[in-house]
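HUMAN: Now follow C-alpha cell order:
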Amino acid sequence: MITKDKKHKIVEELLENITKAKAIYFTAFSGLDVAKISQLRDNLRQLNTKAKVAKKTLADLSFQKAGFNLNILNKKDQFNNSIMFGFAFGDPILSAKTIWQFSKQNENLKILGALMDGKMLKTEEVIQLAQISSREVLLGRLVASLASPIRNFNYVLNGNIKKLIYTLQAIQN
C-alpha cells in the first residue's frame, strides 16, 4: 500500500510534468510485459519524452490541480487501475509517431488520447498527428515549392538561349 506522503509526491511530480509538457499522451498498457514497456520508455526518452505510469485517481487529481477537468480519466471501461502517460517535452509529433508505431507492433498498447495545447485529442486525432511527415520533410517540401518558380523561370530563360544558339549554328552550317 502506498503511503499518503508517497501519493502526494506522485501527484506533485505529475503536476510538474503536466505544466512543462508540450503534449501528454494517454495509453493503456495491460498485457505488455516489462521488457516491452522498458523498450517503449527508452524510445521515448531519446525524444525527450517521459513515460510515467500512475493510478488514474492520482492522475485525475494532478490534472484537476493543473486546471484540466478530463473526463477520460473517469471512464472505467477504457482504463484499468493505471495509465501510462507520455509527457512530450520535445517534438510532440515525433513522440506521437513513436507511440503509434509501437502500438502497431504491440496490440496490447492502446492509445486512448492526448492533451495538446489545452485541447483533448481523441485516438483517431493522435493517429492522424502521428502520420504527419517529420519536420525535416515538411521543411524540404516548403523549400522545394518556394524554389520551383525560380527553377522554372531559369529553365524558360535557358530555353530561349539554347534556341538562339541552335539557330546560329544552323546559319553557320
About this structure: The mean pLDDT is 85. The first strand starts at residue 23 and ends at 28. The chain has two domains: 4-132, 133-173. Residues 135-172 form the longest helix (38 residues).
